[in-house]
Amino acid sequence: MPELTLRQKLVEIRKSVPYLQKASKNEQQGFNYTSSSQVITAVRAKMDELNIALIPAITGHATQPSTTGKQMLTELTMEYTIVDCDSGESLVIPWYAQGTDVHEKGVGKALTYGEKYFLLKLFQIPTDKDDPDAWAEKTAGDSQTTPSEVKKPRPASAAQTAPPDDTGTIGAGAIKQLIKALGDAGIDEVAFISEWGFKVDKVPKTKLTEVMIWAKENRSTTPPEEEGDIFDV
Known about the structure:
Helix content: 25-40%
Oligomer: single chain
Strand order of the largest sheet: 3-4-5
């Protein structure tokens, strides 16, 4: 089999994430959104498999008072360099990001938003307001997609995704279930790794129940600090 080019690898990554449900909720404004950690987790495994690196760079920076005058709007012009670590081939894409907060947090929010939206748009990942089954039914009506080609995603229990033995890490269904639980709890990837010492897609099967209980017990009543105050995505 011939080696894939960088652009062919990007297509393979896009194929691996057909849809992301809005698993986090902004309790203050009452809407659901897709968190940055959810997006990164969705594409990281395939990027690692294909040896693709993403390198951000800030090329410009400006701040101004927000429309309310109570916060500062931070605007960043950026470049994302996508690198095929096998061949050395690279692709540079200019990007723009913004974030609103008090004092020094604007840059961090802008970087977080910038990365999330860059990945969503680069890989054309839908974040439909409907549930996955409704989204699948809609795509089944596409002239280029037949109903038999569309698989309706649905939350899977650990028993459904795990093989009879308890060795190894959890499967794709359990990963999606865990991502949703973490999103509902307002727990980002950094906090998860800090607590457990492994990534979401590397959770041992024997730890899944314990991790799920931990996520429910740590459910936050406020939205994650980094997201959900501007964009309903």
